[in-house]
């Protein structure tokens, strides 16, 4: 099989509620949508959900656009493949740029599943027909505002609440939420905002008293030894996110006992194929896994729902309904959560129709490349 045409759409969609982490606040998102069309006119869609700024990771929308247009599009159009895993070998020499690769991998899996007439979840080996969803809440101006957000999401039926924390916004707001809701599944995420010195480790260990499901990524991505020291000090499981980009990172996490939970983000790990392998490796070693999100539009969100149907995803994942983030999504119908649960689509591919007219209205950049356009291009 060959891909006949690839279109890239950089799209901006406003958030219904601005979101603040330890590094920045955002009120809209710019993501790149990857549209792959084969010779028979079958189309697959993927999403490059990289941040606009280099705070979560070194990739940005601009770097992803450059890598996609200069390297990934030509290689994908020149490749002969039967399964998505084979297409990925076309760009095996390109180091890093996992977000950019993830969008192309997602489009390939969607295209392959549509051609095979099967749901993406089943193509990946998923078993669940429904996925439990959690929500992630940003840093709010006041504790009262945070409590109002928690109440709103619990009323919507979500099974887990994750709170963003940072130095100066940690013990007090988390205590307030736990006091208001003694029994909810609650965890915190620092996005690497803390140093891993002994004083900070002792301070964070005080979170044990709040009966959290996990503390996610308190230290810098490469600081696996710091996370291992914290895990030795705490009974609360440490969850790694930014630290685990490759399967080799996961093996290091296992060897050091640097965490007991893994946040598998499809975008961070370079796409569905590696994310599925991480699920298999982690669960084989007794590590709990869940699917994290990057505020994906509906295409990436549907991909997350599909992989969350795999048996090892036992914790609620970041697959909340589209309305949690967007007044209007890029898919029809939007992802919907009922009592905190999302139904896994049973129709071919990602299971949703893409709203191409809405995409065109909100597009910032566009590239349309056919197979003939790259014939003879340098490798």
TrEMBL record:
Any one GO biological process = menaquinone biosynthetic process
Q: Where is the signal peptide?
A: none
EC top class, in one word? Answer: lyase
Q: Which UniProt keywords apply?
A: Lyase, Magnesium, Metal-binding
Q: Where is the Mandelate racemase/muconate lactonizing enzyme C-terminal domain?
A: 143-237
Catalytic activity, EC: 4.2.1.113
Keyword Magnesium appears in the UniProt entry: yes
Task: Look up the record and name the cofactor or cofactors this protein needs.
Answer: a divalent metal cation
Lineage: superkingdom: Bacteria
What name does the UniProt record give this protein? o-succinylbenzoate synthase
Q: Which GO terms describe its molecular function?
A: metal ion binding; O-succinylbenzoate synthase activity; racemase and epimerase activity
What is the species listed in this Swiss-Prot or TrEMBL entry? Pseudoclavibacter caeni
Q: Does the keyword Metal-binding apply?
A: yes
List the taxonomic lineage. Answer: Bacteria, Bacillati, Actinomycetota, Actinomycetes, Micrococcales
């Amino acid at each position: 099989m060959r891909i006949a045409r690839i279109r890239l759409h950089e799209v901006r969609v406003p958030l219904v509620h601005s979101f603040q982490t330890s590094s920045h606040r955002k009120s809209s998102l710019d993501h790149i949508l990857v549209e792959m069309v084969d010779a028979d006119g079958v189309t697959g869609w993927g999403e490059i959900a990289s941040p606009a700024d280099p705070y979560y990771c070194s990739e940005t929308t601009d770097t992803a656009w450059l890598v996609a247009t200069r390297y990934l599009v030509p290689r994908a159009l020149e490749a002969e493949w039967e399964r998505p895993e084979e297409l990925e070998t076309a760009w095996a020499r390109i180091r890093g740029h996992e977000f950019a690769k993830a969008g192309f991998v997602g489009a390939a899996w969607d295209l392959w599943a549509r051609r095979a007439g099967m749901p993406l979840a089943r193509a990946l080996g998923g078993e669940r027909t429904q996925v439990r969803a959690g929500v992630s809440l940003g840093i709010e101006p006041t504790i009262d505002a945070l409590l109002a957000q928690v109440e709103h999401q619990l009323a919507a039926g979500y099974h887990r609440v994750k709170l963003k924390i940072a130095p100066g916004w940690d013990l007090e707001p988390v205590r307030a939420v736990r006091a208001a809701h003694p029994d909810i599944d609650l965890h915190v995420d620092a996005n690497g905002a803390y140093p891993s010195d002994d004083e900070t480790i002792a301070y964070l260990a005080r979170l044990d008293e709040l009966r959290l499901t996990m503390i996610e990524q308190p230290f810098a991505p490469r600081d696996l030894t710091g996370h291992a020291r914290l895990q030795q000090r705490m009974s609360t499981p440490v969850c790694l996110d930014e630290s685990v980009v490759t399967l080799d990172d996961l093996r290091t996490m296992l060897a050091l006992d640097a965490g007991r939970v893994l946040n598998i983000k499809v975008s961070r790990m370079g796409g569905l194929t590696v994310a599925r392998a991480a699920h298999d490796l982690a669960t084989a070693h007794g590590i709990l896994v869940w699917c994290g999100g990057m505020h994906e539009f509906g295409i990436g969100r549907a991909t997350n729902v599909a992989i969350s149907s795999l048996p090892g995803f036992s914790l609620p994942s970041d697959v909340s309904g589209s309305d949690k983030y967007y007044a209007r999504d890029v898919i029809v119908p939007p992802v919907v959560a009922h009592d905190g649960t999302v139904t896994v689509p049973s129709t071919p591919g990602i299971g949703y129709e893409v709203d191409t007219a809405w995409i065109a209205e909100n597009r910032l950049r566009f590239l349309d490349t056919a197979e003939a356009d790259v014939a003879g291009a340098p490798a």
